Structures
1.
Amino acid sequence: MRIVLDRPRCEGHGLCEEAAPQLMHLDDEGELVLDREEVDGADAALANAAARVCPVAALRVE
Amino acid sequence: MSTATLKRVVVVGNGIAGLTAADTLREAGFDGELTVVGDEPHPAYSRPALSKALLLDHADMASHRLPPAGHGATELLGVRATGLDPDRRRVTLEDGTVLPYNRVVLATGSRARRLSDLPGELTLRGLDDALTLRGRLAARPSVVVVGGGPLGMEIASGCLAAGCEVTVVSQGVPLVLQLGPYLAGVLVGAARERGLAVVETGAARIEGHGGDARVVLAEGPVLEAEVILTAAGDVPNTEWLAGSGLTAKGAVPVDTRGLVRPDVAAVGDLAAFPTARGVRRVPLWSSAIEQAKVAARALVRGDEAPELDFQSYFWTEQFGLSLKAVGDLPVEGAPEYVDGSPGGGPALMRWPHADGTADAVALDYRIPVPRLRRMTRAAA
């Protein structure tokens, strides 16, 4: 599975980072950085959890 | 109860609280039969987007869409729960279905508080409401929004951006009750510059008038518009719990783990939980998520599960400004400027308390929310 970020949509709320800090973080400018894009198993579940808490639907896992 | 004897969990409600609870039950090791009941036919969606991007951006019809659920639950959508028997552990649905459970999550949220039963009074709470309003805005109607809270102001902003003439009717200056006078001043100033008309009143009611609705102010004036929309708060959906003995003051009070009793959790907008300001509802997106995570783990693991350590995160977008706040709003007095300055432009602000903690607000300022959270803590 692969995490896809729709960057123009991201507003930097950071709820995804709180859900999956192992996979992504916001940098000092508030820009989301995907530390890993390819995920499987438990990490895929985490990625999905991160995608679903995003209030602006900026993340997809496909 | 160990997870081995936990066979059936029912989640009643398919908003972000119910969805997060269902996801977290799986994460916590529950692999039994999971059923999610939702009264709307739609899959779970982002409610904050309904009054923001979905109204504003006419090309974008996907801002509210969440990725498909991965919890593998049996989803019963478009059907309402009508009863809970906590002693026999059964949920009843309006179509007569009876769902037995070992554990249940109450997550039926809340609905718009209406000021009348007139069809001419619109509200914005669910996806269908937002699509209706969006459809009406295409003809650029005149709009009166009753309610000067964040939701009312976001809707007013969306209507203005759609080219409508918009009046907000507010008890006192809009946003003061929710944000405090300083931030309210900034946002209402931006709203007026963009052409928003604000009418302050002691109270407003909606009355029928020749098949339409109109707004009557306590002081006497009457406001008419092609669209009348009210944003006057929310009412928890607890009617289906009548007779269960689990409700108090129109909400469902829970402990620090979101539990009403060991086999019943309540999460999201209908739950009143212990906060620094007493037991109360905090009907916000981030609150629903945090509550649901804690309560789902507590249903599986009991007292071993961590308690809720909640710090409010709130954001709004309106009149060309974005605001993110961590801490207890409303804030009183003027802030310290960590970056930026009074008088416009991006700003990072802090309202310190005597104990060294603070409330932190970013106005049009791109900042990771974890960093905003750190700004609220006392210096080590």
Note: The domain at 3-61 of chain A is CATH 3.30.70.20 (Alpha-Beta Plaits).
2.
Amino acid sequence: MGQKLLMKGNEVIAEAAIRAGCRHYFGYPITPQTEIAHYMAKAMPKVGGVFLQAESEVSAINMVYGAASTGKRVMTSSSSPGISLKMEGISYAAGAQLPAVIVNIMRGGPGLGGIQPSQSDYFQATKGGGHGDYHMVVLAPSSVQELYELTVEAFNIADRYRILTMILGDGVLGQMMEVVNFRDEEKIETYDKSWATCGHNNEREHNIITSIHIDPVILEQWNNDLQKKYRLIYEKEQRYELYNCENADIILVAYGSVARICKGVIKEAKEQGINIGLVRPITLWPFPVDAFEKVIDIPSAFLTVEMSAGQMVEDVRLTVNGKKPVYFTGRMGGMIPTVNDIMSKIYEIKNELKI
Amino acid sequence: MAVVFKAPHALCDVPMHYCPGCTHGIAHRLVAEAIDELEIEGKTVGVSPVGCSYNNYLYFNCDMVQASHGRAPAVATGIKRCLPENIVFTYQGDGDLAAIGTAEIIHAAARGENITVIFINNTIYGMTSGQMAPTTLLGQITTTSPYGRDPKAHGYPIRVCEMLATLEGPAYIERVSLHDIKHIKKAKEAVKKAFKVQIAGKGFSLVEILSTCPTNWGLDPVESLKRIEKELIPHYPLGVFAGSDLEV
Amino acid sequence: MLHEIIIAGFGGQGILSAGRLLAYAGMLDDKEVSFLPSYGPEMRGGTANCMVVISDSAIASPVLNSCSALIVMNNPSLEKFESWLKPGGILITDSSLVRNKIKRTDIKTFELPATQYALDADNKAYSNIFLLGKLIKETGCVKVESFEKALYNILPEKKHYMIPEEMAVLKAGMDY
């Protein structure tokens, strides 16, 4: 049956987290994601959970570190400048193999930048951001319904692999309202958490959560184990949507709210007699290389569209690996690419390639 | 034969890495004895800092979490909010707590977070080889104040207990010293009381322990103990700064 | 049918709540809906706008670059969005506040003195409902019954006594 509601993206993230069994949220205010904190502040006491407004993003992520150490489901959220502050804690939690969910509702940068939507934290989210050889699983929802589905899934993935999972959205997704269908009951996957530091109760040896290994031999082995886990995730967790790719002259590559605009482009192009497809990565890390294997022979070219100077396009080029030309168009600083912007780029490519 | 002295169960039977004459070992023992006597090892989670005691997770027999530099009070907050029935303590040095972690300790104290903080003040950064700390005394020579701490260039040492005692959040704050047996016994009582305050759910407790760093002070162990008495205590007076009438 | 609606004016005129009501009513009509508000400092007394899409099929983009219907409640919003209307589109203005000349001739224009109407009714909050009445009448984007239900669902219970009067305002807007 489910429950059908008109809700704001940010609020859906919070509600989804609670439905997924998250009872501990630590955050610090920043636009455009503050509704997550508002919702948590109201809802957590009603379910016996904890909402805590930390003194800084730095503290919030370290509270997450402590809470995740106990094996509980825990979340924090922020927007670009705040995520930069969290990067230290993210690296430590990745090193200590702690499961937690981090939400980044991106805004324009660099620096304090602006508060309008952006996708310019792709590198930070997928390539590191903090120090050391680590990865987070990065999920990129493109609708309010998907914010719900993927937030629930983020907690499952985090627990399954003892890994940080990031929901990478933007101001459009956070602020917009759409209809969301909540399931009556959430299937919460449970995993072994015998590693957690929750008091040994005089029943076992003491557990230790740490990211420091002074002996390089041990640290290298620790890194090897991490990389093994990342390879497993790479093989098992790639997610993507292929949209209208059969017979496409050009295939767009876009994620999040920009993928929605690209669907508008596909409709518009069809009216103008042009067949355009879309590869929409849902996992940004692991990058869905499988999707490209499926469609690589179809188009004359790929066109990556982002609200950035061109970040994901690097992964598209690595994946396409010279087999087809890869173009880029994007807007920055909080400006959103329009259907017309993208259509004119499509015509430019058609002229250049004479298709 | 009666046992009159034994190693605390809450300390693991492993060799420690601390320098000769360093009082970290004594401070560890006091914490472990308190945990033993209160019979809380099974439900205690400790938080290790960054500094000389970064790996004391190997020494304490309870569950341990290693925190990034200065963030132990935030990490402890996260643990305690998940496990309100458990006992959570941090063990931090003066660089960790009073420099890089100033915001975290002040706000944990202001929230009255029901955790216990063991604060080691030896007026210097030990692990990174003797740099000036926020607690370094005026005139004290360190590797980053080679001509002595000059207030015009380096500002003044911070009195953490006095500063935190201005807040309403802390339930119990005391400064103790490890320079002789009498004071070690007093320190033990303070550490134990701090845990009892937490067990009773009274809120934030902190014990500042004046400690030595013979290696970086350039003094032998006995002279180091004398320095605490002669130089540290006049600037960092011993006593209870919050919760003097608190019965637990 | 696909309705791409922009509502724009000053913060405080009920721009965002008007958009949200429409989207909610659309959901009750079993349509696909999206509602995208402007956010940030402009909400505090500056210009505010929102984009509402109501569609029979899945909505591609909630971000609009053109629209089929436009409600403007101040001059700057007319300046900004007049060119966004598709030919044949519907423009509804609050003529109490929008005094600038409408340049487009390839659209259907409806000028309603909404603020004056609200002042006469002694409730400033009615101007947006009055204009929504006209929008619903001219576009048929949502059913009137659904709009009423949306009011009951969105407004807190203590304000439900106002709903019959708000529906009267809506109908006055429809009939203006």
Note: The beta strands of chain C are 2-10, 32-37, 47-55, 67-72, 85-94, 108-112.
